[in-house]
Amino acid sequence: MRKFLFLAMASALVTLFACSGGGKKISLQPNLKPGEKYSLEYKVVMDQDMKSLNNRITILMGHLLDVKSVSPQKESDLELKYNHISIAMKSGNMIDMSYDSDSSYPAKSAMDMPGGMSDMLRDIYGKVFGSMLNKPMQVKLEANGKVKSVSGYKELLQSIKDSMQQYLGPGGSAGMDGLMSDKQISDVFQQLFAGLPQKPVSVGESWAADFEMENNGIGMKISNTYKLVEVLEKENVAVIDVKGKISSAGNKKINNDGLEMTMELTGTSEGRIEVDMTTGMTRSGKVTQDMNVTVESKQTGKMPMTMKTVTTINGKKS
After folding, report:
1. Which helix (H) or strand (E) is 242 found in, with range?
2. At 177, is the pLDDT very low, low, confident or very high (cuts 50, 70, 90)?
């Protein structure tokens, strides 16, 4: 279950994109300045329907982005931190829990769980998410918005593993190694700039972008079409519509605690994003993603599920 939850979390984040307006052509590329700081907040509401079981997961992740330096070639060195994380989960009549890193609720040990599964999950998330807060990761961004490299994720992953072992004892972090890699961190961060047009565009013009993401070895291909629908000159904002198709890519095998499975997925996404034309950063956006997922193993057979995710993002200069 833990692997599927983190996969869903990562997958939910896949729909966020930054892009770039009358008759004139507008060029949108990252234009960050040293010393600038940005606050970014992602909220993901995900509804899963698997047979007769309905799950709703709401995740909010706040980030602080600090522009450390920008080279003459417009490559940017950025520092990224999580500063606020909350999660709420409801699964039928079995689980109804919430956790917010801004609350004073203390995480406990697995030995002190009076409230059943909901309390246990809340405390696990308290440990995991608490260990992620304010841990810096470094991102190097090329002039065109492509992520060149990331670092610091290994230290963040080690903090998570240490917290899990402290909570669950030796072996409590088993299976965590596949949770995070440089490619996965790069993929998630890349969503801020993945839809930037590589040449100037005018209102009404469309462009396409394809890319792949990976989580726990499972590949996902995203094929998007973007359209510049409006330029708000007063607000200095470009309004972009995005439509996309989602499919499986590459390896489709999962090893979940010794249970070998394959996963196939198809889906679509649709939404609208507002981009600051000066910086190329996403100012706000909302994207809805619908997916059909089939997980299959020899032991359980086929397990089809549907997944609907609504993702909103808000960004501002700090």
Report:
1. strand 237-249
2. low
